[in-house]
């Protein structure tokens, strides 16, 4: 038990929680935005991979870090456009289209990366985002180093979660998105264009996913390597269900998840040799499955999720 | 007539080979209630969808207050003051009443929803028209009647001056329907203009000032309500004189199916509450009720797709446990589901596959499907039941509703079942197909089949059933003999008003 | 612009769709090759040479096609019943490790004629177990199996990694994490000497025919299709939905597990965590390219294998990253989806 307490009492753990949570927050918000409008976006894993690659590549070629994030967001939006074209305009299976986007986006990122970055013994690196100490707050004992010495994208991600919650629940646009996700026919009858809403939500959501991926290469690490996203996208999809499609809960869910993850990482180093490290690595995935089983029946699913909308067809 | 607030001029709309609207013109005055009367497929809904901008007409135009409405733009229709109350409500069940009403009414790029102002406006409208509803209730938790009120409020909130209601009474009890029409008249007095779509002669006569009759996509007549009568309207609506068959007297045989105190609970909701009925060979027992009162569960119970939680079910005098589909079909129970497209047939499968899917044990050996026998069986059905538009290998989706229903009837009746569970067998069919379906049901009755007819159509039940029970909120009334039933009495029963003690003597 | 459902689909169109989809994907891949500064036609040619140019490369292509046929069938069978099994990769690995464990620890002494069938069953069973978990979660808790099968892929690979790093670790492998090899009697006979082509290809092809017959001729096949097309209608017609899905899951998971088993017994002889270059995921593309038709799966698997083997060769000689094969395969999935749409709908004003 003292091991558990030791770990929980270290400021380093809590700093890591926010760091680990950031890509999950961004990815979950992106997936949530898509699903609120009625589109499941399984392209997330590939879009995050591409965002990680292209953001890194931009910075590696001399762009500044914020431009790197912007490029990742734009590329995410382009893949979102592809997914929306397949699922909104053509009304194809959202499952299969999403997997297609993931397969394409991830293999395309490896292709581009290999093409432009020659194979080397050690992967080339960039200078990533540096932590910024929040004035005053960061000098608080324990809480300061734990929560207020993060890189800028982390602060931005937390702000985005709150902003998205506001947009979805407090603005006419958010109501239009929710209405479209619940019943696109009703939305249309009220003069909302469900196709346009879905396109917008999927493109914007995918841009967030791209940024989430780029955080990995521009802040958490400093280089890109294939398979680095490691199923984080799928975890985000599970977190959306866990969060009952609410941005605030998505933020909490991602933080909770990251807490488990960084806790197990520390436990892993303490227990190395006793328990195989693979067991610890499995935990995030098993945790996601458990979260799904727990919440799938309770959560209020957007009623039109995965239902293509065609005018005049019921 | 006062000046026209709405003018529909020479509208034509074609879907494939089907001319859904053929040169239809219609005008509507301020404060007027016009009924659009017609059968299924007469083109009523298409016309209203054009009016509301869901469809683009091939030719013709719509004028509101003298100005032409751009076609195919619901938003423009809303701005011009047209409000639409759909038959299948366009509501988002997970959102609140206020959210449903507000959605789309503000510019999407406003930084904040004007919730407080919207709430004030909504409560003002509620008071003015006497439509009470809780603004923060989740729409999915409301009753059907309340949901319809939300639909109407949505239109009024958008400052609609012209209100279109598509089959507004389809899901209401008689009492609720009367209340609705009182509200509509109140609105007309306030200066709103209304069009309602219906195929029910009674309500058209009761509520409308003027009646426009559509048939086969064309406007066939226009009458002032005070200058016409039901008989004339019926003839105009149907065109040719099609007499629906009516049962002839007969003596029922032995009891084949009996329910005693049967309750069914689904997802924690008691859908059937201790129901009793007895079905005898060679009779039609009608179960009448407004949809959503447990009919679906009753049909599913007897079709073998849901189990019972309490009570006893006796089949040919023997208690049966939980009936499975295979047992039901094997025991000679024919089953006509209430939703052809959802349950009755799998559209993407061939006609022959749909003919045998529920009786595969008969058409297979060692787990292999006997295609030849199955195709032959389907061919027999097609010939004997006059299924048009397909051969056994045709995809079933390509059949029209009436022909699909004939296929479903055929696969059940061709084997002369001992019991037939017919749930809403003529719903949504055109008059010709209705007559064919009714004739088949009566033919089965003559041949000794016990028919349980579940329907929400008074006329249908009165024409076919020997005895009638009403279903309300999962409870069944005691049966009354058809001879002692009239529309008023059945209407009361459907509203849940029956006297258990009094009716017993009538029935037995 | 609107889409209208086509009343009749012409057979020619249905057959032409995958061909057009593949051509479209190849054209798009050509653009990427051109951007990389290489001559496109030569690249295509090198891919063909790489896949068929010699006896070795041709047998290698067929060797690659075998697991793809099986993972493709696994996806096709499941998708047809609307069971979204995206867990082929995990089932593949679990089948592989089960075979390695069973042969090295338990059954190694048995003669080939007994051991090989037992091992095949073992591999299939391992795949089935992994798929029954998400199916149970779906039936019991309404959890979407897409996400759970995807997540279980990672769990399965980690599980394999754990075993080959501990109890199943080969002490002769100089510390590399790889499993103990299967017994000699468990190695599948070769179809051609001096090649890696093994009996697995025949097994896979026969299973494709068998699955086709099951789907088109049996009561179960008809019921599974009904369950996929319209669950409510299937229930009304008396199809036992849960039991049908469990059977479908057994076939699907079993085929993917078998793919892993055959790869160990026929090609590598032991398990590592890079045994599969994404066979499970490529299986999804194979199934979609085949329009979920089991016989079409064989052809689609062949195309995918050609791309992978051919691109390897092309990559070595022209300096184009071999990932171009993955890109092409993914693009062919997207074009196929679009193509299938246009066999069902037409554009109307």
Automatic annotation (TrEMBL), chain A:
Q: Name one GO molecular function term.
A: transmembrane transporter activity
- Provide this UniProt record's keywords sorted from A to Z: Cell membrane, Membrane, Transmembrane, Transmembrane helix
**Keyword DNA-binding belongs to the record:** no
GO cellular component assignments: plasma membrane
Compartments where located: Cell membrane
From what organism does this protein derive? Sinorhizobium medicae
| Pfam families found in the cross-reference section | BPD_transp_2
Q: Check the record and name the InterPro entries matching this protein.
A: ABC_transp_permease
Q: What is this protein called?
A: ABC transporter permease
The membrane-spanning stretches of this chain are: 12-32, 39-59, 65-84, 96-113, 155-175, 196-218, 279-296
Membrane topology note: Multi-pass membrane protein
């Amino acid at each position: 038990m003292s091991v558990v307490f030791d770990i929980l009492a270290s400021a380093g753990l809590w700093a890591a929680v926010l760091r680990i949570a950031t890509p999950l927050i961004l990815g979950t918000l992106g997936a949530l935005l898509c699903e609120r409008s009625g589109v499941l976006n399984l392209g997330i894993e590939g879009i995050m991979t591409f965002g990680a690659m292209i953001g890194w590549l931009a910075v590696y070629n001399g762009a500044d870090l914020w431009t790197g994030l912007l490029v990742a967001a734009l590329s995410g939006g382009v893949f979102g456009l592809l997914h929306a074209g397949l699922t909104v305009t053509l009304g194809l299976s959202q499952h299969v289209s999403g997997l297609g986007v993931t397969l394409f986006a991830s293999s395309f990122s490896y292709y581009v990366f290999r093409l432009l970055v020659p194979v080397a013994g050690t992967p080339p690196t960039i200078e990533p985002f540096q932590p910024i100490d929040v004035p005053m707050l960061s000098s608080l004992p324990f809480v300061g180093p734990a929560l207020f010495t993060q890189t800028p994208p982390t602060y931005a991600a937390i702000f985005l979660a709150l902003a998205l919650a506001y947009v979805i629940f407090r603005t006419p646009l958010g109501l239009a998105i929710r209405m479209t996700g619940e019943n696109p026919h009703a939305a249309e009858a009220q003069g909302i264009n469900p196709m346009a809403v879905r396109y917008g939500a999927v493109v914007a959501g995918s841009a967030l996913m791209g940024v989430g991926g780029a955080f990995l290469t521009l802040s958490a690490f400093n280089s890109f390597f294939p398979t680095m996203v490691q199923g984080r996208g799928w975890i985000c999809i599970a977190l959306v269900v866990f969060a009952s499609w609410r941005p605030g809960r998505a933020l909490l869910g991602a933080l909770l998840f990251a807490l488990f993850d960084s806790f197990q990482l520390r436990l892993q180093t303490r227990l190395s040799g006793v328990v195989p490290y693979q067991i610890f690595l499995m935990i995030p995935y098993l945790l996601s499955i458990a979260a799904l089983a727990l919440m799938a029946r309770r959560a209020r699913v957007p009623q039109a999720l995965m239902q293509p909308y065609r005018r005049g067809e019921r | 007539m006062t000046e026209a607030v709405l003018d529909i001029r020479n509208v034509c709309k074609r879907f494939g080979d089907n001319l859904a609207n053929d040169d239809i013109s219609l005008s509507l005055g301020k404060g007027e209630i016009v009924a659009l009367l017609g059968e299924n497929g007469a083109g009523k809904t298409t016309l209203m969808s054009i009016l509301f901008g869901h469809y683009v007409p091939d030719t013709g135009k719509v004028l509101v207050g003298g100005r032409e409405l751009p076609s195919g733009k619901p938003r423009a229709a809303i701005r011009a003051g047209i409000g639409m109350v759909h038959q299948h409500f366009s509501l988002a069940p997970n959102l609140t009443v206020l959210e449903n009403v507000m959605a789309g009414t503000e510019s999407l790029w406003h930084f904040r929803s004007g919730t407080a102002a919207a709430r004030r406006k909504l409560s003002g409208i509620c008071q003015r028209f006497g439509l009470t509803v809780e603004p923060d209730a989740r729409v999915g938790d409301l009753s059907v009647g309340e949901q319809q009120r939300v639909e109407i409020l949505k239109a009024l909130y958008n400052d609609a001056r012209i209100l279109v209601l598509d089959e507004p009474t389809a899901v209401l009890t008689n009492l609720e329907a009367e209340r609705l029409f009182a509200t509509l008249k109140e609105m007309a007095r306030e200066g709103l203009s209304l069009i309602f779509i219906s195929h029910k002669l009674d309500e058209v006569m009761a509520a409308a000032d003027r009646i426009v009759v559509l048939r086969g996509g064309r406007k066939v007549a226009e009458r002032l309500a005070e200058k016409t009568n039901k008989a004339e309207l019926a003839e105009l609506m149907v065109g040719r004189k099609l007499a629906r068959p009516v049962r002839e007297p007969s003596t029922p045989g032995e009891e084949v199916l009996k329910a005693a105190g049967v309750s069914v609970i689904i997802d924690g909701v008691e859908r059937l509450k201790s129901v009793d009925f007895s079905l005898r060979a060679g009779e039609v027992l009608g179960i009448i009720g407004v949809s959503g009162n447990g009919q679906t569960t009753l049909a599913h119970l007897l079709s073998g797709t849901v189990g019972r939680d309490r009570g006893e079910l006796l089949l040919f005098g023997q208690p049966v446990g939980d009936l499975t589909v295979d047992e039901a079909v094997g025991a000679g129970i024919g089953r006509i589901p209430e939703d052809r497209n959802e349950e009755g047939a799998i559209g993407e499968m061939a006609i022959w596959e749909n003919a045998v899917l529920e009786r595969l044990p008969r058409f297979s050996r060692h787990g292999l499907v006997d295609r030849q026998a199955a195709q032959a069986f389907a061919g027999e059905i097609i010939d004997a039941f006059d299924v048009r538009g397909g051969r056994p290998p045709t995809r079933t989706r390509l059949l029209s509703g009436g022909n699909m229903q004939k296929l479903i009837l055929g696969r059940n009746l061709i084997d002369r079942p001992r019991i037939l569970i017919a749930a809403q067998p003529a719903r949504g069919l055109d008059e010709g197909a209705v007559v064919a379906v009714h004739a088949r049901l009566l033919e089965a009755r003559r041949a000794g089949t016990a028919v349980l007819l579940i329907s929400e159509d008074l006329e249908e039940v009165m024409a076919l059933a020997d005895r009638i029970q009403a279903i309300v909120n999962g409870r069944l009334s005691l049966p009354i003999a058809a001879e002692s039933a009239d529309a008023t009495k059945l209407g009361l029963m459907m509203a849940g008003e029956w006297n258990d003690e009094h009716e017993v003597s009538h029935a037995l | 612009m609107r889409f209208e459902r086509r009343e009749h689909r012409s057979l020619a169109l249905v057959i032409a769709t995958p061909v057009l989809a593949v051509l479209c994907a190849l054209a798009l891949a050509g653009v990427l090759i051109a951007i990389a500064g290489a001559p496109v036609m030569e690249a295509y040619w090198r891919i063909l040479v790489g896949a068929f140019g010699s006896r070795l490369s041709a047998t290698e292509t067929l060797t690659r096609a075998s697991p793809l046929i099986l993972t493709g069938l696994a996806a096709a069978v499941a998708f047809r019943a609307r069971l979204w099994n995206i867990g082929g990769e995990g089932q593949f690995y679990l089948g592989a490790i089960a075979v390695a464990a069973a042969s090295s620890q338990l059954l190694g002494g048995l003669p080939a004629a007994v051991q090989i069938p037992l091992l095949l069953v073992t591999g299939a069973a391992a795949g089935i177990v992994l798929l029954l978990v998400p199916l149970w979660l779906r039936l019991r808790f309404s959890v979407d199996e897409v996400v759970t099968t995807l997540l279980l892929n990672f769990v399965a690979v980690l599980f394999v990694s754990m075993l080959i790093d501990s109890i199943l670790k080969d002490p002769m492998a100089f510390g590399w994490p790889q499993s103990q090899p299967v017994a000699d009697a468990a190695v599948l006979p070769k179809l051609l000497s001096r090649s890696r082509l093994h009996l697995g290809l025949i097994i896979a092809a026969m299973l494709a025919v068998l699955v086709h017959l099951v789907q088109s001729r049996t009561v179960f096949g008809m019921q599974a299709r009904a369950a996929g097309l319209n669950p409510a209608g299937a229930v009304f017609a008396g199809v036992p939905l849960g039991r049908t899905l469990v059977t479908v899951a057994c076939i699907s998971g079993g085929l993917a597990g078998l793919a892993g088993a055959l790869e160990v017994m026929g090609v590598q002889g032991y398990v590592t965590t890079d045994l599969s270059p994404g066979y499970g995921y490529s299986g999804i593309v194979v199934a979609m390219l085949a329009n979920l038709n089991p016989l079409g799966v064989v052809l689609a698997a062949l195309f995918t294998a050609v791309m992978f083997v051919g691109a390897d060769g092309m990559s070595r000689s022209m300096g184009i990253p071999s990932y171009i094969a993955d890109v092409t395969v993914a693009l062919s999935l997207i074009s196929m989806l679009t193509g299938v749409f246009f066999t069902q709908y037409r554009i109307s004003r």
